[in-house]
Automatic annotation (TrEMBL):
Entry GO terms, CC: endoplasmic reticulum; membrane
Segments traversing the membrane: 38-60, 75-92, 104-121, 170-188, 197-215, 221-238, 250-272
Name the UniProt record assigns to this protein: Ceroid-lipofuscinosis neuronal protein 6-like
A biological process from GO: lysosome organization
Coiled-coil region(s): none
Originating organism: Gymnodraco acuticeps (Antarctic dragonfish)
Record key words, sorted: Membrane, Transmembrane, Transmembrane helix
InterPro entries: CLN6
PANTHER family with a match to the protein in the record: CEROID-LIPOFUSCINOSIS NEURONAL PROTEIN 6
Stretches the record annotates as Disordered: 1-23
Pfam families: CLN6 (PF15156)
């Protein structure tokens, strides 16, 4: 009897400790509190380390950061590449439902790699801006690029643009939104008291939505964002047929994305007739970058 009891206790311990990082195969029933600390930290560091990165490079004296050394914005980007995946993992840990660990880990690894590629490309791009590079023009149309000799150097700058604005963004943002979507799928409940956003969540909703607007427009990931939002809508419809609704965290994320869709639409309407930006963004989906608007309409005016 004692040997059988020891084996039973060992089996319980293995079951409880077999899944690291909180992504357990059997998640006990728990009260679903609003994760204000994580949402606040995520929103704050997004605004400071991502949105604030190019701004700090504008205002800090160039003498402090020589062009052959990392700039203040580069250090911001390095911090972002470490803090953001950590916060995303903590968010996944608090999911009330068991989530696929392999998918989460793969997304985090890809996220870090893509953000790191963007770090290098964006660092060089900032130095080009200081030399007169115009963001509202294509690489070959830029005055400091089009007359380079030999002409093959222009191909190298186009490759840099590809790594910075295309490959880097895709490897950065696709796993970012996949992780948020995976988390969202676990944020459903039948309990009525858990379906309300607290006051702290409503206060965070504006800054969070405004940052996602910046992320979508500056990152040129409108299609990816709309697909993610559409997938979230589909999940909500399916879950509601089963009597489930988003809890406070899922509702906060869904409302943030809903407001972001509205902000992106207003941004496009505002710049719909701009001929210069229309020329740079000729695709079916026309969503200009805020920093292209800055170099075209604000920087030149000053």
């Amino acid at each position: 009897m004692s040997a059988r009891k020891r084996r039973s206790n060992d089996l319980k311990e293995k079951t409880q400790t077999s899944a690291p990082c909180g992504l357990k195969d059997n998640v006990p029933h728990q009260r679903r509190n609003f994760h204000f600390d994580l949402w606040f930290c995520l929103t704050l560091q997004n605004w400071i380390l991502d949105f604030g990165r190019p701004i700090v490079m504008i205002f800090l004296p160039l003498e402090w950061f020589p062009l052959n050394k990392p700039s203040a914005g580069d250090y911001f980007h390095m911090a972002y590449n470490v803090i953001t995946p950590f916060l995303m993992l903590k968010l996944i840990e608090r999911s009330p439902r068991a989530l696929p660990r392999s998918a989460v880990y793969l997304c985090i690894i890809t996220f870090v790699m893509g953000a790191s590629i963007h770090l290098v490309g964006d660092s060089i791009n900032h130095r080009l801006l200081l030399s007169g590079y115009q963001l509202h023009l294509s690489v070959r149309e830029n005055p400091i690029i089009k007359d380079l000799k030999p002409a093959s150097l222009i191909d190298s700058f186009e490759l840099l643009y590809f790594y910075d604005e295309q490959l880097g963004h895709l490897m950065w943002y696709i796993p970012f939104f996949i992780i948020l979507f995976i988390y969202f799928t676990g944020c459903f409940t039948k309990a009525r008291e858990q379906k309300k956003i607290p006051v702290s969540g409503w206060l965070l909703l504006g800054p969070s939505s405004l940052y996602y607007w910046y992320l979508v427009t500056e990152g040129q990931i409108t299609e990816l964002f709309l697909l993610t939002f559409l997938a979230m809508v589909v999940v909500v419809i399916i879950k509601q047929r089963k009597g489930l609704s988003p809890d406070s965290n899922g509702l906060f994320l869904f409302c943030s994305f809903s407001v972001t869709v509205l902000l992106v639409a207003l941004w496009v309407i505002y710049l719909w007739s701009d001929p210069v930006l229309r020329n740079k963004y000729p695709g079916l989906i026309y969503v200009p970058e805020p920093w292209s608007y800055y170099t075209l309409h604000i920087k030149q005016d000053h």
